[in-house]
Specification:
The complex is a heterodimer.
Chain A (H helix, E strand, L loop, with lengths): L5 H18 L2 H25 L8 E6 L7 E5 L1 H20 L8 H20 L3 H10 L1 H11 L4 H30 L4 H5 L5 H18 L8 H8 L2 H26 L1 H6 L1 H20 L4 H20 L4 H32 L10 H4 L1 H15 L5 H16 L1 H26 L6 H4 L6 H19 L2 H18 L21 H14 L1
Antiparallel strand pairs in A: 1-2
Helix pairs in contact in A: 1-2, 1-4, 2-3, 2-4, 3-4, 3-11, 3-15, 3-21, 3-22, 4-5, 4-6, 4-11, 5-7, 6-7, 7-9, 7-10, 9-11, 10-14, 11-14, 11-15, 13-14, 13-19, 14-15, 14-18, 14-19, 15-17, 15-18, 15-21, 15-22, 17-19, 17-21, 18-19, 18-21
Chain B lengths: L1 H4 L3 H20 L4 H21 L5 E3 L4 E3 L1 H19 L1 H5 L6 H18 L3 H19 L6 H32 L4 H7 L6 H17 L8 H8 L2 H26 L4 H24 L4 H22 L2 H27 L17 H4 L1 H15 L7 H13 L3 H26 L14 H14 L7 H13 L3
Antiparallel strand pairs in B: 1-2
Helix pairs in contact in B: 2-3, 2-6, 3-4, 4-6, 4-12, 4-15, 4-21, 6-7, 6-12, 7-8, 7-12, 8-9, 8-10, 8-11, 10-12, 10-13, 11-12, 11-14, 12-14, 12-15, 13-14, 13-19, 14-15, 14-18, 14-19, 15-17, 15-18, 15-20, 15-21, 17-19, 17-20, 18-19
The chains are: A mainly alpha, B mainly alpha.
Chain lengths: 517, 476
């Protein structure tokens, strides 16, 4: 595969398809979009199959000096590979999810989704700081249109809020990037990763990046755009927003802030921990009292992302690997949950929880899938959520037992609000006539649910397939952070076994003897 | 003297061509639109060719009053190109009312602007500026029967005269306290600690020039004139004179006031931030697209001034790149506005009337979105690049707080740009049936500039970098 620009090809396919969609009719636009996303998924599989685990850190690198001041530099490591896989896996499902639900301006809709795909995988591939920023920011435009044109009743407000909130955050990052480029004299990310910025400068750069990435993440208290955006966005928009866009923030933490500013990261660890702890408890409590299904899942996303940030800033292998698995797991599970909401929304056109109830009777297949994803969101062993939460909490515990304690309450609260949601929607008496009339999953919905469920289980049963490509990169980050890492309050070490005592031996022996009689 | 004449071919061509066009209009009548249009366009084409032919020549002519160099060349190419487009689009707009004065005045304005960009003496500066301004006053009130147009012309004239007065007063102070009108001589006088007289001179000159680039607080005329003037004239005002005034300001600041950086840097920083913020905030309430674009031009001038405030070669390069991208965007945006007509063929300027434009005229709405996102500086559109360059120049000149303030204020600006996109894409169709439809030429220009500003422009960065570096190096 060496030399073949597979990454550029993965960017080119959806881009060309997007242009075609603009000029195609409704039916054709759907077909083109599905074909393009499936091709990209196939390319992603090829990419994964050819990825050399344990080989060079950066693989499939491409470099073209097209822009003078910066380069068209692409390349992936294990983390990027996994997040790209997540994006290309979710995209065809998003297209399928909007197959019937979107009826107006289909060509434009599909084009926006395909551009979204280009932008997302571009972010994960970029090896040049400015190229990264361009992709990172470019995501605003298609999402603005997706929320604004095809969203719910209050879509215009949500679109504005989404756009301006995230823009305000990212411009500060741009200033930090300019300073970094000036200081290091290069825009090349692999070089910057090993550049030691002066400690005083690191703090400012860290804060500027934090301002941007915390909004994208989103962290408390700058999370308020997310519930609005989710509630108003169409189903597929929510899927992609929760599935991939929320991962951009965490990816930025792991790619830039932690390895590039290790001293500042260690110094400001407390800030991240405090915000994460507040977010876990506070947003979980808010989720408990929501009456709107999408809002509930949106708040649960904020809580999950808070565990991710806490896990990342544990600065150890388990914490970071766990955070990465939560990112992947949440990407699959929250997309699935938003789709679950979308399925019944398409039938009854309301997201109000009280309007449903007793779905287990007339929609058994739906109830089963919904149950699986609920469990995966809670973190039941055997599902993807468990692996990530267990690993990251283990890592957090090593860094700070208090943070681990608070984050664990978040998991308990998570179980509470998810089960409460499930009970109100799926169980209970089937009394309402319009709910009775709702048919079970159709083949198209099966085709979306099944792969999501399969991946959630795969990740829960054999997470090694996902962890293996990322392990080397996590080790690199941990090694980079090691000099700055503060001592945790809980030292996990295997205890020395006590020597066997002589005194009890006789009694033991006699007991044995007695027993043998 | 005759040797000097060979170096000012662009100016000579414009003078002669302008006179020929005037004669054609006078003797053949205003109805021969094709004839005098052709003459004007050919003149501009020939002048452009002359500028290209003179590329690489670095000389001062006429006892050091005028400079022939690549900085002026860069600015002139932009000015001539913008003027070319503004002449090209006029006949369709004025339909029956087209007169030969229009191309003639634009040619003379272009001549004046060329002199502005090339001047290295306070007197040439003033002559160029007034030649441009006088043509512009007449152009603003070109539609004599239209009340708004006459009002725009009068307003522009009164305020412009005031600004010229301030400029002249500043010039007289500079001359009085340095003893010379030559830029290099003034720079020498500023070498030490500049006296109070020189500082007053700097303030007044910058105030006068600030009026021409419509920087806050000298911007008041801009929205009214942009709204009142006929759209092709507004297109012209928003593009070519901005380039000329900005180039002139750069030359005055770097060449004449370079050593006194402490005296002017604060002023420029204030003008920059005030323009960015007021340009952004003022635009929010606007209901007329031309007024809105006027505020947008104020806002963009603020960003250019950030590059200028750096006072470095990198800063000037950024300003030149910004000017190029800005001219392309502005021409594109105004050409779209030009095509918006209702069923009766009247111009549609109200923003609410654009509601649902994306369904009526998808191509036009898409192009306008590209221009607006580009003006807001959202990547991947090319408008991001010049913004990046000016911020980089500011950071490199140790003006980090300025860069941070500017970049945060740019978010305010983004609000009204995306508000128009909201109107075009999210709102239901308005009652006004925007049909319009342009001819092939306009459509091609709009499409080409939109395409260039979508990511394709990034491929031109190496060329742009070489050209702007070459031009900026002249001043340092």
């Amino acid at each position: 595969m060496s030399g073949f620009p597979i990454l550029s090809l993965m960017l080119a396919v959806p881009l060309v398809a997007a242009i075609l969609c603009l000029y195609a009719g409704d039916r054709n636009a759907r077909m083109i979009a599905l074909a393009a996303t499936l091709i990209d998924f196939a390319l992603g599989v090829v990419l994964w199959a050819n990825f050399d685990i344990g080989g060079a850190q950066w693989q499939f690198t491409e470099r073209a000096d097209l822009f003078g001041r910066f380069q068209w530099a692409l390349g992936i490591d294990g983390m990027a590979l996994m997040l790209i896989m997540l994006s290309v896996f979710l995209m065809p499902l998003c297209i399928l999810a909007s197959w019937d639900a979107i009826t107006k301006r289909v060509g434009l809709y599909m084009a926006m989704f395909l551009i979204m795909e280009v932008v997302m995988i571009g972010v994960f591939m970029a090896q040049d700081l400015l190229l990264f920023y361009i992709f990172f920011e470019a995501g605003l435009i298609p999402m603005y249109f997706i929320i604004g044109i095809w969203g719910g009743a209050n879509r215009k407000y949500a679109a504005f809020k989404f756009f301006l909130y995230t823009l305000l955050g990212s411009v500060l990052m741009l200033v930090a990037m300019i300073v970094m480029i000036m200081e290091a004299g290069t825009t090349d990310i692999p070089t910057l990763l090993n550049y030691d910025f002066p400690a005083g400068m690191q703090t400012w750069l860290w804060l500027a990046f934090f301002a941007s990435l915390a909004v994208k993440m989103p962290m408390w208290p700058v999370h308020t755009w997310l519930p609005d955006a989710h509630v108003q966005a169409p189903t597929a928009g929510s899927m992609i927003l929760a599935g991939v866009l929320l991962k951009l923030g965490a990816y930025g933490f792991l790619r830039f802030m932690m390895p590039m500013f290790p001293d500042a990261s260690a110094e400001l660890m407390w800030l991240v921990f405090i915000l994460s702890m507040i977010a876990v408890v506070y947003t979980s409590l808010i989720a408990l009292v929501q009456n709107d299904m999408k809002k509930l899942i949106a708040y649960s996303s904020v809580a999950h992302m808070a565990i991710v940030t806490a896990g990342l800033f544990a600065f150890n292998q388990q914490g970071i690997e766990g955070a990465l698995i939560i990112m992947l797991s949440h990407g699959v599970v929250s997309a699935a949950l938003f789709f679950c909401v979308g399925v019944i929304y398409d039938r009854l056109h309301t997201r109000e929880i009280d309007r449903y109830g007793g779905l287990a009777v007339n929609m058994p297949a739906y109830a089963l899938f919904f149950m699986l994803f609920t469990m995966a969101s809670i973190g039941l062993p055997g599902t993807s959520g468990f692996v990530g939460e267990f690993l990251s909490l283990l890592g957090i515990y090593e860094a700070s037992s208090v943070v681990a304690f608070v984050c664990t309450t978040g998991i308990i609260l998570g179980a509470a609000y998810m089960l409460y949601l499930y009970r109100r929607v799926v169980f209970g008496e089937l009394t309402k006539d319009d709910v009775k009339a709702m048919p079970d999953l159709n083949p198209r919905e099966w085709a979306i649910m099944a792969p999501l469920a399969a991946v959630a289980l795969w990740m829960g049963v054999y997470p090694e397939s996902f962890l293996a490509p990322m392990r080397g990169d996590v080790t690199t980050v941990v090694a980079r952070l090691a000099p700055a890492k503060p001592a945790g309050d809980a030292q996990l070490a295997a205890g020395t076994p006590k020597a066997a005592e002589d005194q009890g031996d006789a009694a033991h022996g006699s007991a044995h003897a007695g027993g043998a009689k | 003297m005759t040797a000097d004449l060979a170096l000012i071919w662009p100016e000579l061509i414009l003078t002669i061509g302008g006179l020929i066009t005037l004669m054609l209009g006078t003797f053949m009548g205003d109805r021969q639109v094709g004839l005098y249009q052709l003459s004007a366009l050919l003149t501009l084409g020939a002048a452009t060719a002359a500028v290209v032919a003179l590329f690489g020549v670095e000389a001062t002519v006429f006892s050091g009053t005028l400079s022939v160099d690549s900085f002026g060349g860069f600015a002139k190419l932009l000015i001539y190109a913008a003027s070319f487009v503004c002449i090209l689009i006029a006949p369709r707009f004025f339909t029956g009312g087209m007169r030969a004065e229009y191309p003639t005045l634009i040619l003379f304005a272009a001549l004046g602007m060329g002199i502005m960009a090339a001047s290295r003496d306070l007197m040439t500066l003033y002559v160029g500026l007034e030649l441009n301004s006088l043509a512009a006053y007449v152009l603003a009130s070109f539609m004599r029967t239209d009340e708004r147009s006459s009002e725009a012309g009068l307003k522009y004239f009164v305020l412009g005269a005031l600004a010229s007065g301030m400029l002249l007063y500043g010039i007289s102070l500079l001359y009085g306290f340095s003893g010379t009108t030559d830029f290099a001589g003034i720079a020498q006088a500023m070498g030490g600690e500049p006296g109070i007289g020189l500082i007053f001179g700097i303030v007044f000159v910058l105030a006068g020039l600030g009026f021409k680039i419509s920087a806050v607080p000298f911007h008041m005329w801009t929205p009214d004139v942009y709204e009142g003037a006929p759209t092709p004239v507004t297109t012209f005002f928003a593009s070519a004179p901005k380039v000329a005034a900005m180039a002139l300001m750069t030359r005055v600041i770097v060449d004449a006031m370079g050593p006194a950086i402490g005296a002017w840097q604060q002023i420029i920083i204030f003008l920059a931030l005030a323009s960015i913020i007021l340009g952004a905030v003022g635009a929010i309430g606007q209901k007329n697209i031309k007024r809105l674009l006027a505020y947008s031009s104020i806002n963009n001038v603020g960003f250019m001034l950030i590059g200028l405030a750096a006072g470095t070669q990198q800063g000037v390069e950024a300003v030149l790149t910004y000017l190029l991208v800005y001219v392309v965007t502005t021409l594109g945006a105004f050409l779209v506005v030009l095509q918006l007509r209702d069923a009766d063929g009247d111009q549609v300027e109200s923003i609410p009337a654009l509601a649902g434009l994306s369904q009526r005229r998808p191509g036009l709405a898409a192009a306008l979105s590209v221009f607006l996102f580009s003006l807001a500086g959202i990547p991947p559109l090319f408008g991001f690049w010049p913004k990046y360059l000016v911020f980089e120049a500011a950071v490199n000149a140790n003006l980090v707080p300025l860069a941070v303030a500017g970049i945060v204020a740019s978010v305010i600006g983004a609000f009204y740009y995306i508000a128009i996109i909201k109107t075009m894409y999210f709102d239901d169709q308005s009652d006004v049936d925007v049909t319009g439809g342009g001819n092939v030429v306009e459509g091609t220009i709009v499409a080409a500039s939109a395409l260039w500003l979508s990511a394709i422009g990034y491929l031109f960065i190496p060329i742009l970098a070489v050209a702007s570096a070459r031009a900026a190096s002249v001043l340092f």
